[in-house]
């Protein structure tokens, strides 16, 4: 199937209009509960094996202005003092958690997310990186990634990013259409994005990612194509292409976006596939549902080898099963399950000041959760899954797995999937709806549908 065909082929609205998780974890965060205590987290940290390489996530929940499409946990601050106070709490949490672990674990990946992590002063970034290198043992090939708002990045911060060994930067672009930019309260010129990209490369950052969004207010297929053509001039190494999740009941600032300015499901699909067609025509390889990468990128190699993974940052080469999250609302994953910190920066800082983990909720994984999580990840990453092989490793029969996912029969009858004995494959034309297929194995789906995004 070529990309032009996929861009024009209609999708079954029974599936494309569904609201489903992005499956960056399983179970998904709405199913976390307060049953997981700070004491539980301490026990889980102590149990991390000495030889485990871990990943780190640091959440910086501050921005200078609110983008009305935003679904992140962030706070608007025009002053630097609240940010400095928060970073002091973040450093205390890092020291407290690593003291609980009791040894310097090896680190393979670090990700600074937000909000806008580069809202920090350059010296504050340097201080954080020095503390992380003191408390953890960075592998020589460790990836250090940071999310960037090009509108507020300074030359001094660009230099500090390079000096501190950041290997990958993700730039928010979303759309270069000025009509769309005004509608989402994010005015960002191509020239600013280009200068940021070139500055980061000059500072030594090897990997540049762009984030694009389709389904935004007043967005058209033509404006999506124009944005991609401009992006291609800057030669990003990877692009992430996400559908806008309009959930104004959950994110109240999204009420500034009128429902009647948003494209319907068919238009969203056309926008997404138009972007994909232009990127693949330019030589990028499509990775899973919504990522694109140059042919020599490590994501492409991982996908070809069946080693692609999915975590809270999307598709990744990070195979670590231990992710330690720092900061307000940060989510971590340990062998036993998930941990999430208090989402309020003020409450988070107060807990840390008391010498307590900022844990507010979490989830202890069951054997069935682990089985379903692996199946869902392989569907999301590979568009196919060997149910027989996975079932055997988890000590169950593939027949029992199939019986536990009754929705599969309807998916097969509708031509969405092919079931061949113990294997499942997503039909080529249904790949944009891969989340619908993955959801067949979600034992908890239903309770939190209102806060999820459309399947396309």
Describe this structure in words.
It is a single chain. This protein is an alpha/beta fold and 456 residues long. It folds into two domains: 295 residues, Transcription Regulator spoIIAA, CATH 3.30.750.200; 89 residues, Arc Repressor Mutant, subunit A (Orthogonal Bundle). The chain contains 17 helices and 21 strands. The strands form six sheets. It has a nine-stranded mixed beta sheet with strand order 10-11-9-8-7-6-5-2-14, with helices on both faces. Strands 15-16-17 form a three-stranded antiparallel beta sheet, with helices on one face. Strands 18-20-19 form a three-stranded antiparallel beta sheet. The radius of gyration is 21 Å and the shape is globular. The two termini are 19 Å apart.
Features:
single chain; 456 residues; alpha/beta; Transcription Regulator spoIIAA; Arc Repressor Mutant, subunit A; nine-stranded mixed sheet; 17 helices
């Amino acid at each position: 199937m070529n990309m032009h065909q996929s861009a024009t082929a209609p999708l079954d609205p029974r599936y494309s209009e569904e609201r489903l998780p992005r499956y960056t974890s399983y179970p998904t965060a709405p199913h976390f509960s307060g049953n997981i205590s700070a004491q539980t987290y301490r026990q889980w940290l102590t149990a991390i094996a000495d030889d485990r390489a871990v990943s780190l996530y640091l959440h910086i929940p501050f921005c200078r202005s609110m983008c009305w499409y935003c679904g992140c946990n962030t706070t608007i601050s025009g002053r630097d003092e609240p940010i400095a106070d928060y970073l002091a709490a973040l450093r205390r949490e890092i020291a407290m958690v690593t003291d609980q672990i009791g040894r310097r674990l090896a680190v393979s990946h670090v990700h600074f997310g937000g909000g806008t992590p580069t809202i920090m002063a350059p010296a504050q970034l340097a201080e954080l990186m020095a503390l992380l290198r003191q408390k953890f043992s960075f592998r020589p090939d460790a990836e250090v990634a940071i999310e960037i708002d090009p509108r507020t990045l300074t030359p001094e911060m660009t230099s500090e990013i390079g000096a501190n060994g950041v290997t990958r930067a993700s730039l928010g672009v979303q759309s270069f259409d000025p009509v769309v930019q005004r509608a989402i309260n994010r005015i960002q010129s191509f020239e600013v994005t280009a200068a940021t990209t070139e500055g980061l490369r000059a500072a030594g950052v090897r990997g540049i990612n762009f984030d694009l969004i389709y389904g935004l207010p007043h967005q058209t297929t033509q404006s999506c194509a124009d944005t991609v053509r401009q992006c291609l001039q800057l030669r990003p190494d990877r692009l992430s292409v996400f559908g806008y999740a309009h959930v104004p009941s959950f994110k109240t600032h999204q009420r500034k976006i009128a429902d009647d300015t948003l494209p319907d499901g068919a238009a969203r699909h056309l926008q997404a596939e138009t972007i994909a067609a232009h990127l693949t025509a330019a030589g990028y390889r499509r990775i899973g549902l919504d990522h694109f990468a140059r042919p020599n990128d490590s994501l492409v190699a991982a996908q070809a080898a069946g080693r692609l993974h999915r975590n809270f940052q999307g598709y990744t080469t990070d195979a670590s099963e231990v992710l330690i999250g720092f900061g307000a609302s940060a989510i971590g994953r340990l062998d036993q399950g998930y941990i999430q910190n208090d989402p309020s920066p003020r409450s988070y800082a107060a807990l840390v000041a008391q010498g307590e983990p900022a844990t507010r909720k979490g989830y202890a994984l069951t054997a069935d959760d682990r089985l379903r999580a692996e199946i869902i990840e392989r569907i999301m990453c590979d568009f196919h899954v060997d149910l027989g092989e996975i079932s055997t490793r988890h000590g169950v029969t593939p027949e029992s797995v199939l019986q536990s996912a009754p929705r599969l029969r309807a998916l097969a009858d509708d031509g969405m999937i092919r079931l061949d004995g113990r294997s499942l494959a997503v039909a080529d034309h249904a790949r944009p709806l891969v989340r619908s297929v993955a959801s067949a194995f979600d034992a908890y789906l239903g309770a939190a549908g209102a806060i999820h995004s459309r399947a396309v």
